[in-house]
Amino acid sequence: MGDRAFERTIIRETPERIFDVITDYGAYPRWANNVKDVSVERVDEDGRAGLVSYRAAAMGRSAAYVLEYFYGTNPLRVSWRLAEGDLVRRLDGRYVLVPLEDDAAGPRTEVTYELEVEISMPMSGFLRRRAESRILRNALEDLRSWVEEGSQLPS
Question: Is residue 67 part of a domain?
């Protein structure tokens, strides 16, 4: 069984715009440093990506995995579960966006990234937690940089 971990950050943008970036999976290789290739395999009845294939750098190797996405009724949350993967047995998680009160600099959103990872190769608990922490921190830093710099946000 994998460990569940989470990380939070504040991003200076509306939750709707951040959600648009998070769900534009095809753009991930442009801003998520470890993601090398993405392919949307299936869309749902609302036109949203339902099944997405990834190739990413992981622990000095290339990892391939497929995630199935779930949107539910909360327009500021997206979750996923691992459908298949070569280096991982579990890669389940979600983003939760919470609008905060705007300040003088504009809109702010609390972004929580939750992740449960189970690596298929033997790894000590210390190394696993370190890898999870790095994944979470890097994902949020990459997202914040892309969004706050305004780099080709979907409209």
Answer: yes
